[in-house]
Amino acid sequence: MEATTKSLVSLFVDRALPDYWVVRDPEGNFWLVPPSQSPWENRRPYCPTEDMELEPVPGHYKYLLELPF
Question: For residues 11 and 43, what is the distance between their CA atoms, to the nearest angstrom?
């Protein structure tokens, strides 16, 4: 039997970028997602560093971003 693991999507905020959400996709990539008409389609790559403070956001906000997963 093969075990499968499902990576979760996570939402964060970076207080230095108050106009964006930060999304970690199932593959572990980080994205800046703006609050817009097509948020996921307007995303930009995001590379967090150790000195950045990402604050977790409850998952029930995912619907706002129209994520494809």
Answer: 13
| Separation CA 69–CA 5 (nearest Å) | 15
Spatial separation of the C-alpha atoms in residues 27 and 4, rounded to whole Å: 14
| Cα-based angle 41, 57, 62 (whole degrees, multiple of 5) | 40
Task: Provide the whole-model pTM.
Answer: 0.84
Is 60 exceeded by the pLDDT of residue 4? no
Summarised one tens digit per residue, pLDDT across range 46-67 is: 999 988 899 999 989 898 898 9
| CA pair distance 66, 41, nearest whole angstrom | 9
